[in-house]
């Protein structure tokens, strides 16, 4: 479900990150990381205040850039695990930012087929049930209609899926509650916000080239361009077919 990768990127560090007494000399990557910038008030009272290092600043900037975002061809970044190495910096631009390249490790979320996850129902359409997780909200996670619990039906009138009980199956396509409240226990509805156990069928993460190409096509055809394109950079497909899959409340009631 989680994987580790080593990435390489160019990072800009704004001047505001550097205290006035940050050491200007650099004796290689290791030297800079070992040379702290003191953030003390200058009082020599024997108390050691927190000292900011270039390694700390890099970790902070990389976390801002990557955590919570999808790394193309990899998955959703949940943590920058370590800064392994970085180059000497050079000052560029009117903002006097320090630019350098860094090698660092990341932990990404990209579940393999067969992984079981706990999620919540976010939305329902005739195409299936859309899920969300605490880990993310913007990544499409669909359980297609054909992957719902066997026998599930969609009610266009009510706009949700339900599983009729064997004795109350109908041909109308509407749940028994459309007839009377006394039959409310005769079917199991898929409820928005309900917790479910879902099995991952596929996890697709587009390459950076594919996303850029899709954005270019959308910009030419629709005149929109820029972000929110038709092709999601990451997409999950799930299934409720199998033992102990589907809304957790169904199993709780049975128990």
Verbal overview:
By secondary structure, the chain is α+β, with helices and mostly antiparallel strands. The chain has 2 domains: 2-109, Dna Ligase, domain 1, CATH 3.30.1490.120; 116-152 and 190-254, Beta Barrel (OB fold (Dihydrolipoamide Acetyltransferase, E2P)). Helices cover 16% and strands 37% of the residues. It contains 4 helices and 16 strands. The chain has helices at residues 28-34, 54-66, 208-222, 248-254; strands at 2-13, 37-38, 51-52, 70-71, 75-86, 90-92, 97-109, 116-125, 128-132, 141-144, 153-155, 160-164, 187-189, 195-205, 234-239, 246-247. A hairpin with a 2-residue loop joins strand 8 (116-125) and strand 9 (128-132). The two termini are 29 Å apart.
Named at the architecture level, the CATH assignment of the largest domain is 2-Layer Sandwich
Helix content: 10-25%
CATH third-tier fold name of the largest domain: Dna Ligase, domain 1
Average pLDDT score = 81
- Pattern of helices and strands: EHEEHEEEEEEEEEEEHEEH
Low-confidence stretches: 24-42, 177-185, 223-228
Largest sheet: 5 strands, antiparallel
Q: Alpha-carbon distance between the termini?
A: 29 Å
CATH class label of the largest domain: Alpha Beta
Radius of gyration: 26 Å
Shape: elongated
The H-level CATH homologous superfamily of the largest domain, spelled out, is RNA polymerase Rpb7-like, N-terminal domain
SS content category:
alpha+beta
Main location: nucleus
Organism: Novymonas esmeraldas
Domain RNA polymerase III subunit Rpc25: 116-251
Family: Belongs to the eukaryotic RPB7/RPC8 RNA polymerase subunit family.
């Amino acid at each position: 479900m989680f994987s580790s990768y080593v990435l390489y990127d160019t990072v800009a560090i704004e001047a505001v990150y550097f205290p006035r007494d940050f050491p200007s000399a650099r004796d290689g990557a290791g030297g800079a990381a070992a040379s702290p910038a003191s953030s003390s008030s200058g009082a020599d009272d024997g108390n050691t205040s927190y000292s900011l290092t270039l390694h700390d600043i890099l970790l902070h900037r990389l976390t801002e850039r990557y955590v919570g975002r999808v790394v193309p061809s990899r998955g959703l970044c949940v943590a920058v695990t370590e800064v392994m190495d970085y180059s000497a910096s050079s000052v560029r631009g009117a903002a006097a930012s320090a630019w350098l390249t860094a090698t660092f490790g990341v932990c990404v979320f990209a579940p393999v087929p067969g992984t079981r996850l706990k999620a919540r129902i976010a939305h329902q359409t005739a195409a299936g049930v859309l899920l969300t997780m605490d880990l993310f909200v913007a990544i499409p996670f669909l359980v297609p209609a054909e992957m719902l619990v066997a026998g599930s039906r969609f009610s266009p009138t009510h706009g949700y899926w339900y599983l009729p009980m064997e004795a109350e199956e109908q041909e109308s396509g509407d749940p028994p509650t459309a007839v009377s409240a006394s039959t409310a226990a005769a079917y199991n509805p898929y409820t928005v916000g309900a917790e479910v156990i879902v099995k991952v069928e596929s996890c697709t993460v587009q390459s950076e080239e594919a996303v850029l190409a899709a954005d270019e096509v959308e910009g030419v055809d629709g005149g929109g361009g820029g972000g929110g394109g038709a092709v999601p950079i990451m997409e999950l497909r799930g299934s409720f077919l199998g033992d102990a899959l589907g809304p957790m409340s169904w199993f709780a009631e049975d128990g």
